[in-house]
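Re-run requested by the PI after the first attempt was lost when the workstation crashed. Everything re-entered from the original request form. Ligand of interest: phenylalanine.
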Amino acid sequence: MLEQLEQIKAEAQAALEKVSDLDALEAWRVAHLGRSSPLMNSFKQMGGLSKEERPKVGQRANEVKVALEAELETKRAMLKQAALSASLDEEQLDVTLPGRALVRGRLHPITQTLRRIYAIFAEMGFQVYRSREVESDDYNFTFLNMPPHHPARDMWDTFYTSTEGVILRTHTSPGQIHAMREFHPDPIRVILPGMCYRYEQVTTRSEMQFTQVEGLAVGKHITLSDLKGTLTDFARRLFDDPNVGTRFRASHFPFTEPSAEMDVECFVCGGKGCSVCKQTGWLEILGSGMVHPTVLRYGGYDPEEYSGYAFGMGPERITMLLHRIDDIRYFWRNDLRFLEQF
Ligand code: PHE
């Protein structure tokens, strides 16, 4: 019986040598220390031994069991360590590899131009005033000194809705009336940015929808020189050139009197004449004028006491000039090859 125990032990140890992973170790444990293993069976056979033999065999069987259990634990620790270092080797990271670049979004070029315009006017004390894109005919035309059937309405090809008198604004100027009616009788200094809509043939130079930034100042002593000074300063800041040349050309808008368009010296050729300025040396960038007395009255301000100036510009056009973009349709086409350049 003792010999048999030695053999059981030797066999178990030999088998343990060959175990090379944790699964095999578990199988070994079941085979050599499990309930129906030879060692455990030898405990069951103990009853058939003589009184003298039983304690000796029992003691030895226990010793074998304790020894095998100890070897099992040693082996288990070894295998775990080996598995750990294997996985560390396998999953090793090369921290010197270049990272994967994150794809970053960016602002639409028009948004960038708008923000630049807001920043410049904010420094001059103008606040942003938002007004609606769906307008009434009255705000878009009548209150701007264009009563029904006024021929000047033809300057703006209009999107009408199925509701009588409800249209999409053709310019941001109706916001002037909203601002005046809200601010009255306080002085006003606002810019009114937003989307405008015109029922027009889409070409390289005109889109059905586009943004505008309107400006409005109303107060008790506002003069044409305030208008010129503000817009000249704006142009210098926009084109980042304190010496940029500007000129005002007489023009006509029903809601301003007098009216003027502002040109800036062509920054491509410096005024000499090139294809961007069509050989004139000048680039038109906005329309402006002194708020017409009729418009002031519609806004609730007495033109005997108050005066004001207004202007309107197209950020698409400005962006096209700044970046020499030759087709306005790029802005709405959402082609990443275009957008990613900004
Ligand atoms: N609303 C005019 C346009 O769309 C621009 C403008 C605004 C002109 C304010 C004068 C004063 O063409």
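Saved to the shared folder this time. DSSP finds twelve helices and nine strands in the chain.
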